[in-house]
Amino acid sequence: MGEKGAPEKETEDRSRRAEFRLKLMFTGISVLAALLGFGLAWQLYYRRPELPGRIAASMAGEYQILLHKYYVDELYGALFAGR
């Protein structure tokens, strides 16, 4: 009663292989994203160090919003901390 039949074992093996492939795919996506990030950082800060300043200057409004983290801290301070 404890042993599994051939169809059950085959289904379990297929399920394990599918789970392994899914994990491998997500690992590959993560590694690719990391490599793209390193490549972008190298391009921006090593190869062309003037580029981040030019990008920030061309998008001054968006840059300020992101720099101040959408002004959440300032809003919290004004509403709840009495600043």
Describe the structure.
With 83 residues, the chain is an all-alpha fold. The chain contains four helices and no strands. The longest helix is centred in the N-terminal third of the chain and has 42 residues, at 6-47. The radius of gyration is 25 Å and the shape is elongated. The mean pLDDT is 90.
Q: Which key terms come to mind for this protein?
A:
83 residues, mainly alpha, 82% helix
Give the class from helix and strand content and strand pairing: mainly alpha
SSE string, helix = H, strand = E? HHHH
Count, helices: 4
Terminal CA distance: 71 Å
User: What is the CA-based Rg, rounded?
Assistant: 25 Å
Quick structural overview:
With 83 residues, the chain is mainly alpha-helical. The protein has helices at residues 6-47, 51-58, 60-67, 72-81.
Sequence-ordered SSE layout with sheet pairings:
Layout: H1 6-47, H2 51-58, H3 60-67, H4 72-81
